[in-house]
């Protein structure tokens, strides 16, 4: 293994940082940084639900994902100008939406929708996992701001995500862009704070992987997520979110 | 657990059938049936590659997925008429493409593209896994037809897929539509004949799942795929494909 | 005239076959085969009408047409992926819709819509006429399934279609793809079982045609349609549709 | 039959007028008026051909059709603003293109394309037949302007079109909008000056029609077109086009 | 300065003409000609308002702009066929809409919308200013036709527009196409008959301009507009519009 | 006049700040803040030109504009998801492109394109003027990074923009969102550092404005821009851009 960015070993994730209230107009807003990957996550609470949920008394959580044209080394074409979201974008925002839906108790939410936007302003690998981890914080900030609207907080627990790869048989945690381009296998784990799985997605870009490697990925991914959950918690506590909100 | 379709137990997949040469114009064509799910898979070999691969001497494999409007109990809107593929469609065809790319040695393919189309004519759950399993057969038939063009068959080995779910803590193999709508967790496994992983995708629609449940899914999915690979092999042998093609 | 496919003479249509209930989810479903052209026709009865017919107590019949990418010798681009139906597709599905509207008494239908989908799975010329002939069968099966909803069957009579061409002055009935590419004139006739015209469309691709040739086309087309109507009737009778439904 | 517009009987077409050089920038331009229907037809000769004809030494003729939003009694939505041409528009412009292609000898044209635009500025029925009749004039004016480029005029002969309807069993020639909305059958005939058929399109909107009615339509349509061809000829002669151009 | 078209000096606009009732189906219709630039302007009064104005008791004015493909020396691509309006078109029609909104008292209009369509049939520079000047006339004709619907005419006063340019330091009034392609600065002024500004848009395509040049543009533009307003008034008076309508 | 934000008087602009290198992947990057309006501006130098400039030895400057969904108090719909840029977006990015083109000497640039992206992350009025002012800085940083590629810096001078409004007859400089919603007139001035005009755009949303008010706008806008140019210069000097680059 060549030297990894930020001088870390195979099992260690990049420095993670949350800048809450990064922008001021959304109901919840955070800039999440995972190494050099930076994503603005904002959340809004809207008093309506999609058509298929009307008059059922339950709410919804949805997410959208975008990448600024200037976020990458080569300029990325602007999807709005092309008139179409790429397949990759569609796939990512569906993953984020499913993952963040697991944070919320849609019964307690009532007929409301939380919309989370994750816009990458600087890309260096792991944008989708950063978006999930940061999107959860934005969602919590949004509900915290509107906490008076709810009898009990419509929360099911925090979620976070981490990427992993297998390179020449070795498992690497939290890939940067350069690593992401070279690994044989690319995995994303989304789990709850209580250690259960929300999503697992693994793709053998080059070389299929064994059952044993799968086991290592699950073990190291879980360990890395423990740290992520701790930082998420600190960020929310520092913001002033009540500790009771963070332990369900 | 209520009675499962086709009188099977939790670990058993639905009857699987391949009708090779289902249509006659494509280079390879098969109707794959998994219980009541039926998918037409066709494959073409084209003497060109996408722009990003030009002049590199390597080939490409790509897939598209569609659902006939009449395939479902409620008519599905025609995507061509709406002018847009749904997010679900985009996500599925990217999965199929990645999976089938693993069948092929793109170096040996040369500057050619294999395009696999998977069109669902009758839907009863598991359309994407049927598409992968059947798409692999169509791909083999296509290359068999053109075998004289290649010094050595540009094959990396067969792939197949199966869906699994977790319902009230019990793992179910090969979900039909009704089961798919009720399970807490929905997983798709794509593996090689040699038992290695190509793709794993698991989503906890309702309830996060434990490490132990993950282990059961991996075990039972692997066992179910052994049967699938055997039927795939028989279909190709019956068609006349050389046994040597089926063992790499 | 070179030898025609299926060893037929200029006045004879290709073998015609209807496979009712080809798929099981739609309200009516048939696989129609005209020689090597195969089209899946499905029909649904929906309890709504387009905006321009709301609250008028009458129903509507509409059709959509598609071609699987693998239906042709050279793969056809998927219209859903291009984000647009081709002009040819639009023109064909408007023809099918107008033709099948003539089968139905929209007053007796009430505020309901019948949607017929015609998807070509194998193309060898005459896909639009096969779609009309088969679409009529799917429509009848759909109404037969829902017959208890109607005081009197909302039927105006069966329709069927046939293609004709003029090649070096000779009229040919039911062109296959190769003939279709070479004829000077391409005609489609849509008639009722009682021998009246629903649609006539003739195009001189290469050489304008005379009044006398027009007369021959009308005469031979009418004769060929008599056979088509007989086979349609047998298919519906064999399915169990009441004879009284087939004679109006 | 109620009184027809312009005090005419069933067999008589509306007053027809050609205003050549109606606009000055196109290579050929004419305002064609059929009663109150007015269509601007322009033609350009371009030194290129569509991709499928490249390097074959032959030319192409294509047409586009549009309707100004203000052309109708109720404003029509602008297709450019909707981002899509309607099915009706697509169908009409394909008909115009096929018809005008019959005017031209594509071998003599060389690798050039004639593009004819037909834009309706006032609509009162028969816009597509007016577009064909006027488009032929614009095409002739365009070739006349560029006549020095050709060794022999790349002309195959003039074409013109007329609409007909059947109302309560009676054939009507050249329907205005009100008639068009009420007839049982709507036909369009496109013929050459020499009396041969280019296109025939007939649709029984309400009531199928008989063989005998078909005969009457063909006879009366032919007679009406004789007059149209004469007026077309006069317009071109008055403009200064050489008589020899008008007799092939 | 080279010789200007129509033999005019730098301060003089091209001949301006209004042909009222140019087409007969719209509520108001005029062909406006500015030299060789010709634009059909039509107006409709519709008994509805956009969503954002519902139930507020006020009306709306909106405009759309188009260019016939045959209006230019080189054929322009049809926006409806491309499936998209160009940026230039969007920008122009927003300008026309804002300008014509200033003609109308939206309170007195009630919950109605006036839609003005400006379609260029011949382009020689200044199409957007001609569209505003002519659109105002179409709007007046439309309201005049419906005058019985209003207690008091919902008018705020006439508007008109003129283009100006700076070429080698000299201000030119009412640019034709050739001038428009060469000037250093391109300005559009929209004013009310009472001499107040509605819109000013100036762009230094090549060379930034000075405060002093700005002053000359404002002065000469104002003078040119005095003449335009006089001709607009004459056209409306000749049509029969009550003089009292023209002086507010 | 009610109290203005940041305690300023009518003639004073909001605090302006440039954070150079805000992101690290683009060739030039700056976060520009005008009060609470924040825009990320990035610039790339690409070795190609649009089709209409090929083989002419000159370069091009283009700009795109976007607004993050979370930038506003009410969430804005994502244009990429709608599949279309709004008219307002198209108009703004054309303005930015024209303005920044004036910074560059396209001859000296050679066959290269500078693409500037301006993405609003927090909106409080004046986003288009902030985008121009910040876009100029990003453009300079981009050229500074690539300075070795040019014999002489391909610069024509800096540009900057400011918005102004007229409210109850009083001119206000640099409107925030609340002011922008209430003013009668909305103007944008784009000038060069040498005090010449690049663009002027003024719209009387509610009440036409007089010549005298126009004069005040020009005077106060010019004064405000002097301060903007000074801050731009300081930001670039602090970054290390050579003073000689800032004085042309």
UniProtKB/TrEMBL annotation, chains A, B, C, D, E, F:
Pfam families listed in its UniProt record: RNase_PH, RNase_PH_C
Keyword Membrane: no
CDD domains: RNase_PH_bact (cd11362)
Keywords per UniProt: Nucleotidyltransferase, RNA-binding, rRNA processing, Transferase, tRNA processing, tRNA-binding
Binding site for phosphate: 88, 126-128
Key word tRNA processing present: yes
GO biological process, one term: tRNA processing
Top EC category: transferase
GO molecular function: 3'-5'-RNA exonuclease activity; tRNA binding; tRNA nucleotidyltransferase activity
InterPro entries on file: ExoRNase_PH_dom1, ExoRNase_PH_dom2, ExoRNase_PH_dom2_sf, PNPase/RNase_PH_dom_sf, Ribosomal_Su5_D2-typ_SF, RNase_PH, RNase_PH_bac-type, RNase_PH_CS
Role of this protein: Phosphorolytic 3'-5' exoribonuclease that plays an important role in tRNA 3'-end maturation. Removes nucleotide residues following the 3'-CCA terminus of tRNAs; can also add nucleotides to the ends of RNA molecules by using nucleoside diphosphates as substrates, but this may not be physiologically important. Probably plays a role in initiation of 16S rRNA degradation (leading to ribosome degradation) during starvation.
Protein name (record): Ribonuclease PH
Native source organism of the sequence: Acanthopleuribacter pedis
């Amino acid at each position: 293994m060549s030297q990894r960015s930020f001088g870390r070993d195979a099992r260690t994730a990049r420095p993670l940082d949350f800048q809450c209230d990064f922008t001021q107009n959304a109901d919840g807003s955070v800039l999440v940084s995972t190494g050099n990957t930076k994503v603005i996550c904002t959340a809004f609470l809207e008093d309506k639900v999609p058509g298929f949920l009307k008059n059922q008394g339950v709410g919804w959580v949805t997410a959208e994902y975008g990448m600024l044209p200037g976020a990458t080394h080569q300029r990325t074409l602007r999807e709005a100008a092309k008139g179409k979201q790429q397949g990759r974008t569609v796939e990512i925002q569906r993953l984020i939406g499913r993952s963040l839906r697991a944070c919320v108790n849609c019964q307690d939410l009532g007929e409301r929708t939380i919309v989370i936007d994750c816009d990458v302003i600087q890309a260096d690998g792991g944008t989708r996992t950063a978006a999930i981890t940061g999107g959860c914080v934005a969602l919590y900030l949004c509900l915290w701001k509107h906490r008076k609207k709810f009898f009990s907080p419509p929360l099911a627990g925090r979620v976070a995500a981490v990427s992993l790869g297998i390179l020449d048989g070795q498992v690497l945690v939290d890939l940067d862009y350069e690593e992401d381009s070279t690994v044989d296998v690319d995995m994303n784990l989304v789990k709850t704070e209580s250690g259960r799985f929300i999503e697992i997605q693994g793709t053998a870009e080059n070389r299929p992987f064994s059952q044993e490697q799968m086991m290592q990925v699950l073990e190291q991914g879980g360990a890395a997520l423990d740290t992520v959950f701790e930082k998420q918690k600190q960020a929310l506590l520092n913001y002033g979110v009540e500790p009771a909100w963070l332990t369900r």
